[in-house]
Amino acid sequence: MSKVKPTIAIIGGGAAGFFAAINLDVSPMYSVVILEKSNKLLSKVKISGGGRCNVTHSCFDPKELTAFYPRGKKELRGPFSQFQPADTFDWFLKRGVDLKTEKDNRVFPTTDSSQTIIDCFLRIAEERNISIRSQSGVVNIERKDNLWKISLSDQSELEAEYVIVAAGSSPQFWDFLKTFGLEMSPQIPSLFTFNIDDERLKHLAGLSVPNGLVCIPSLNQESWGPVLITHWGISGPGVLKLSSLAATELFRLNYSFEVVVNWVGIEQEELIELFKELRIQQPKKNIHTFSPIPIPIRLWNSLINKYISEAMKWADVSNELIRKMAIEICACKLNVSGKSTFKDEFVTAGGVDLKEIDFKTMESKRFSKIYFAGEVLNIDALTGGFNFQAAWTTSWIAAQHISSRIKKSD
Questions:
Q1: Are 271 and 323 in contact (CB under 8 A)?
Q2: 154-213 pLDDT, tens per residue?
Q3: Which residues lie closer than 8 Å to 145 by C-beta, 6 or more apart?
Q4: Which end of the chain is more exposed for a tag (fewer CB within 10 A), N or C?
Q5: Which of 44, 16, 39, 13 is nearest to 130 (CA)?
Q6: Beta bridge mates, 194
C-alpha cells in the first residue's frame, strides 16, 4: 500500500493563491492543492486593466515602491527587497511571457490580454500536477496531530502539513479568521469613485482633464492625475488614488464630504494673470468660445456660466469676475454624497492585521505552518499594478519559505 503524500493546501484560486502554488519547489514529494470556493479561477486577473492585466508597475526601488501602499508601507519594505517588480519581469520572461511598460509605467503582457497570464499559471499548475478543486469553500480549519484539518463546504475534509491562506476579500472567510483567533482590520472599500449631484457636472459625462488636483480639505489629503466626469460624479486616476489614500477616513465620514477640484492643476494667481493678459491680447474674443486653458470647452462653459453671459467678450470682464472665474477653475467645491465601485474589480482595505504576520516568511506569528498572502492581508495600494505586485511578493515569499523548510527537514 503506497504512502499518502503530505499536502500543502492553498486557500484561494486567485492571483496570490496560484502564484504561491506554482512557486512551491516541493513536487513530487508533496501533494499541492488549490481550494477555490467558486467555480471561477483567477477572476481578478481576468478583468484587471480592462482585460489586459496590469501585472505590475515599473518601479524598481523597494523604498520608492512602498510609497504607493497606504496600508502596508512599512511592512513591505523587507519583502520588496526579496521580490520586487524587476523580479516579476524576470519570472514571467523565464516562463515565456513578455511584458511591456507603458508611458505611465504600468506593465502589461505584450499580448494585451489577461488570458496570457492565466494560461501561463494554468500550464505550470498542470505541469507540476497541482490539484485544483473549485466549489470547495473552506468552512473550518483546526490543528490535529501536527496537521491542519480542513473542512470544506462539500462536507469533505483534508489534512495538510502546510496551509497558505490567499482567500482574498471573502467576507465569510474573514469572519471565520476572527473566530480562528486572528486580529482582523475591518473590510472597507479602497478604490472607488465619488458620487456628486451638481448642476455644473450634469450632461458632461465622458469629459476629462489630463492633470487635475483633487483635494479633501477636511482631511488635508490631495491627489494629482486625470479626472473623469461620469454620470454619477467624478472618477479617473486622480480620484481613485485619493480614495485609496483616504479610505479609512472616508469610511468614517460615511462618504459624505466636500472635495475641491483644480481642473487645470495650476495656481489660482497664475490663472488670474493669464486671464488679465488675455483681456489685453484678445479683447474681442467671446469668453464662452475662447478658453485659454486645456479643459474641454463644454466644461469651461459650465464652470463660468454663473458669471459670464453668452455675448460677453474678454474686454468686458472685470477683475472681480476674473477672480471668480479663477476660483471656479482652480478651487471648484463639490459635495460628495456616496461612492461607486467597480463591482468585481474594486480593491478592499482591511484583512489580517499586519502585526499577526512575520514578513520575512509570511507565516503567522501565532500558528505554525500557516501562511498568508495577497488581499487577505490588510495591504492595499494605488492603481497601477501595485496590488498585483503585493500579491506576487507575499505569495512568492511564503512558497520559498515552505520549500526551504521542507528541504531542510529531509
A1: no
A2: 899 999 999 999 999 888 899 999 998 999 998 888 889 999 999 999 999 999 999 999
A3: none
A4: N
A5: 13
A6: 234, 339
Q: Are 15 and 44 a contacting pair, CB within 8 Å?
A: yes
Letter string b/e over residues 230-268, b meaning 16 or more CB atoms within 10 A of that residue's CB: bebbbbbbbbbbbbbbbbbebbeeebebebebbbbbbee
CA atoms within 13 A on the CB side of 18: 23
Dist. CA 353–CA 357, nearest whole Å:
8
Q: How far apart are CA 410 and CA 147, in angstroms?
A: 18
Q: Using alpha carbons, select from 272, 249, 408, 404 the residue that is nearest to residue 329.
A: 272
Its pTM stands at 0.85
Residue 330 corresponds to which cell in the numbers above? 482652480
Query: Quick one: which H or E segment has residue 126?
Result: helix 114-127
347 vs 388: CA distance, rounded Å: 11
Q: Which helix (H) or strand (E) holds 74?
A: none
